[in-house]
Amino acid sequence: MDPGLTVGVAIIDLDGNIIVVDSFKEISKAELINYIISYGKTVLIATDVQTPPKMVKKFATVLNSKINSPYKDLAIGSKKESVENYLKEFYGRNGQKFNYLPQNAHERDALAAAIHSYKNYQQKLQLIERRIQNHDLSLKDEDEIKIMVINDIPITKAIDKVLNKHASSELLNNLKSSSRSQDEVIEKSEIDLDRPEIGTIISKNNMEEIKKDETIHSVSKLKKQLRSLDKQKRNLQKRNRILEDKLRQYQNEILNLEKKIEKLNYQFSKDILQKKEIATKNAIIKGLQEKYHAEKSLRKQLEENLHTIKGIRALELSKKALPVKIIDAFTKNGIREASNYWNIKQGDVVLLRNSEGGGSQTASLLVQMGIKAVITTDIMSHQAEEVFNKNMVPIVEFNRINLKIKDEFAVIHNDDLDREMEIWNNKQKNEQKKENKKKMLKLIDEYRAQRKRTADNS
């Protein structure tokens, strides 16, 4: 069974034949029980998980059946493989068409559980079939023995129970037959007394002698049967002793195999520990190698930075050209990274490769650093431009100067920069004059308006 909202059911008989594979959605317990018992007596309920679900336990109680579950939950891959292999074997063995293919996961899981449980008992069930070949037993008797073995009764004991039951039944039938024979003799004698045409007179003494002879014959026959049963019993006991000796031999073999398995497990565990230790050491080595490469890469980068800084310093000392420190992105992170890389300080000139995303806050960061001028390659936002203008930080357009860039290193001649800064300052002065003129005209207009309102009120 595979319980759930959709219940998967697969039924296999004691010979390993698939009887039915089906699934039901929202079926009642009573309906499902009637469905199951319509195929016969339930001997075993199988599940594909280690801990049987409550529903399986309830059905086992109602159907008076044993539960069989795996020592660990069956994996999906294992269930698929088990079902596929068994179906190939089943259809090949029975020469049938594919009528029992699972239609969904519930049917597949139920069939996998049934197959797994049948495989657990298959050797015992096949051994029973071989052991009863020399006995005249019916298929019903064979199933009865198999059921007892599934319920943990030893094979020999189960066979003996069925044989003894047959022997007792045969003995009882013989006794009944003997009793009927005596009654028939008496009845025949009484009939003969009523038939004078036979011409024979039978006395009561003769009748008693006949009864006595018949009784002696019956007792003799019963004694022979008892001797036969006793002989059969001794043979079974002898066979039982042989089987017990074989059992002890098998138990010794099992014990030896278990010791070998234990030894192999120890060796296996030892190998696993060694492999784990090697894997741990390899991981440590790999970690050290990665750390070494990271340190090496960092050292190379620092050396390159040092070389660049030395070049900047040399230009600063020459006083003919001024180094320009490059900022790739006009963002807080971009400014922070450039500052760490170039060591931006007061009086530096910076180049903004990309002004996109920059606003008043990012412009304020550069103003706080005390930069001398900003070179832009594109149009800057109005907010950022306003902050630079307010703090008298010149904004120089890239295409107006002769900026030399090589290996992420930029240089501008002092004369070019001074010229552009003077142009920007003059522009700012003119803008300031215009602004002041506007303010003055506004004040005059306001004054005239006030005079007029005062005059009107007078």
Summarize the structure.
This protein has helices at residues 29-37, 54-62, 76-94, 105-131, 139-150, 155-193, 204-318, 332-342, 360-369, 382-390, 414-457; strands spanning 6-12, 18-25, 44-46, 66-68, 321-327, 349-352, 373-376, 395-397, 404-406, 409-413. It is α/β, with parallel strands linked by helices. The protein has 3 domains: 6-150, 2-Layer Sandwich (Nucleotidyltransferase, domain 5), CATH 3.30.420; 155-261, no CATH class; 320-446.
Explain this structure to me?
The chain is an alpha/beta fold and 458 residues long. It folds into three domains: 6-150, Nucleotidyltransferase, domain 5 (2-Layer Sandwich), CATH 3.30.420; 155-261, no CATH class; 320-446. It is 66% helix and 10% strand. The protein contains eleven helices and ten strands. The chain has helices at 29-37, 54-62, 76-94, 105-131, 139-150, 155-193, 204-318, 332-342, 360-369, 382-390, 414-457, and strands at residues 6-12, 18-25, 44-46, 66-68, 321-327, 349-352, 373-376, 395-397, 404-406, 409-413. The chain starts with 5 loop residues before the first strand and ends with a helix.
